[in-house]
Design brief:
two-stranded antiparallel ribbon; about 220 residues; about 40% helix; Rossmann fold; alpha/beta; about 20% strand; seven-stranded mixed beta sheet
């Protein structure tokens, strides 16, 4: 593996990006930036949960995520979705593969059984983590840590989309958690230009943001 973060297939990456743009799951606004919860300014906003409302796109993601799981992680015994964005797609993939499913909260509940992992997860199982979106990887790896504390063997992570931040590569490498995605920021920008979602003149803005998202727009 050349990198700890890899795109599954080029054709799938382009088609996934096109689907997300078409249903407006991904919006590009270089001239009117969004503000993320972290406070970062961004020319892009990604909400892959929009795909759940579009059967054709939902089925495309389910099929290709499942295919990727079979090819890359054939030894997976359990599928774990990261709450909340990947609960639905994780359950769809688990159903397609005929595997048990659990989901992982950012932290344990303060009431009831105080679970952080919801569902039945025997110790020692080989687990594939499903995520909808990876930015820095920090929140995704909280789920990985929780699963490892329960003695799960983490095979890797499979996500719909990544912004390709350098910090994500660093975090995934440190955690020794390989990540494969259906699509990524590079493919998204290519498709956006090809489909006239953004002008060539806006490419520099989009490139500068990805290189330094924490300070862009200041």
């Amino acid at each position: 593996m050349d990198s700890i973060i890899n795109t599954y297939r080029k054709d799938t990456a382009r088609t996934t990006a096109a689907h997300l743009l078409n249903i407006k799951a991904i919006k590009l606004q270089p001239d009117a930036p969004f503000t993320w919860a972290s406070g970062w300014k961004s020319p892009i906003y990604c909400d892959n949960r929009m795909a759940l409302s579009h059967p054709e796109v939902r089925n495309y993601l389910k099929h290709n995520m499942s295919e990727a799981a079979r090819m890359l992680y054939p030894d997976a015994e359990v599928i774990a979705g990261v709450a909340t964005g990947a609960i639905a797609i994780g359950a769809l993939v688990a159903d397609e593969l005929g595997l048990p499913f659990v989901y992982v909260r950012p932290e344990a509940k303060s009431h009831g059984r105080k679970n952080q992992i919801e569902g039945y997860l025997p110790q020692g199982k080989r687990v594939l983590v499903i995520e909808d979106l990876v930015s820095t990887g920090k929140s995704s790896l909280l789920a990985v840590d929780a699963l490892r504390k329960e003695d799960s063997q983490i095979l890797g992570m499979l996500a719909i989309f990544t912004y390709e931040f350098d910090v994500a590569t660093t975090n995934m490498t440190t955690a020794q958690c390989p990540l494969h995605t259906l699509s990524s920021y590079s493919y998204l920008v290519e498709e956006a230009v090809a489909r006239n979602y953004v002008a060539n003149s806006e490419l520099q803005t989009l490139s500068e943001w990805r290189k330094a998202p924490h300070s862009w727009g200041e």
